[in-house]
Design a protein that fits this description.
about 80 residues, globular
Length: about 80
Amino acid sequence: MPDEMPWRTLTPARLRAGLSLWDLYLRYVALGGLATSKMLFGHFSKGAELATNEHNLIVLALNERFLEIDAQERLPYMG
C-alpha cells in the first residue's frame, strides 16, 4: 500500500541528514523550488499540500545530502 502521507517521512529523513529546516529550504530553493518557506514549513509540520514536483524537489535535496554524507538512504519520489 503506497504511503498516503509521504510528507510524514520527510522530518525523520531531514533529521537523519543533519539539516535544519531552514538549511533544507535553502537547498530546495537552490534546486528551483518555488514554495515559500511558510509553505514548506507547513508541509513538514501539518502536511499542508504541496504540488508533487515541489515535494519531489524536497526529496531531491534530501537525497543529495545523503550522497554528501555517504549515507545509503534514498527517499522515493512521488508520482
